[in-house]
Amino acid sequence: MKKSRPNKIVVVGAGLAGSEAAWQLAQREIAVDLYEMRPKTLTPAHVSGNFGELVCSNSLGSILGLTSASLLKDEMRLFDSLILKAGESARIPAGSALAVDRDRFSERITEVLKTHPLITVHGGVVSKIPEMPAIIATGPLTHESLSEAIQNLVGGPMLSFFDAAAPIVLKETVDMDHAFWGSREGNQDYLNCPLTSDEYRIFHDALIHAEQHPGHDFESSAFFEGCLPIEELARRGFKTPLYGPMKPIGLINPFEHGRRPYAVVQLRQDNAAGSLLSLVGFQTNLRWGEQKRIFGLIPALKNAEFVRFGVMHRNTYLRSPAVLKSTLNAVAREDLWFAGQMTGVEGYVESAATGIMTAQYIVQWISGRPIEEFPRESMMGALAHYITHTDAKNFQPMNANFGLMNLPEHIAKIHDKKARRQWIRDHALESLQDYSTRIQTEVSHEAG
To answer: Which residues pair with residue 314 across a beta bridge?
Structure first.
């Protein structure tokens, strides 16, 4: 006789992962108690009480057809992702990236979840692990009381690295006599601020000698490599930023007789009105006064008004390979799942994807049937497999990427990258569609 399991789940945290998980469960007629401590208790990075607030970039990544980021989005659409629907409804121009008006984006998620008949929203800090079946999706800025409870459960310390957000400037204060519109993809979605070799040398020298926020004197090993502060990049070498966010390749400077600039800083629209622009790839831990002084050395930003300076915060995550099962529930407790960046995935969309996966696993668990993992042929399945099977001692956060995919030998040998990635995409979506259909059929059968 099958064990009776409750048809109600607690979700702690209404960030991207928690919001997605709550939506997925409620859409499958499972009641949800959704807990969010904001706005009563804010984190060092959040500024509102809205669900799904974006604290760093306003970009949800590439929408190009054969990129890993685009494949992950295509997979999530098969599950009617709330985060992607909100992103597409709040989309603003950003070339090949899905950038959003961050306020409209989070307001849409909040509205949908607060008005859903099967979701009950609760405020305040959750300091203990819920006794009933739950998903903990409190993100990398989990309240210290809950972090302590989690560490006690898993039997070891949680890990951490440091993440940073880029500054935002008021568009009308940018000097358009020293900036031009364009992108490496050929559209006009980025405002480019060029620097000559002499201007770049002065900028680089100021950057590597600038003052950081007090108490934030980090070792380079504390940073996540995918989101390094611009000053850390500069310290790694004079030309290092030129191969990163300041690379001039693919851009033509109309002020220099159509020649390529020596270096460039790109600004991306940050809100629907187009009045705010963020400095692409310019995450930073510099003191605010230093940011204004040093970024003011960029000719187009000499008199720019900063509406938000760059900030840095601690990102905490689990040693997932040691404490989570392959189905993202805790080794120490079968009915407790973890989702989002705290599991060791890196990126907005990756976080939301774990919300989808945990919800699907819970649907199976409630039905009383054995939980079937997401197929490793899919990007979601490959990502989940990485964070639960890699070497726990050297575990680091990971973005979705094709290197996670377990390819058949004959496909791995295909030299044409486009053809190889087309096969990966087609095979991933086919395997995931089969998985979704099969799980839905089997769960419906068990319920009947």
So the answer is: 162
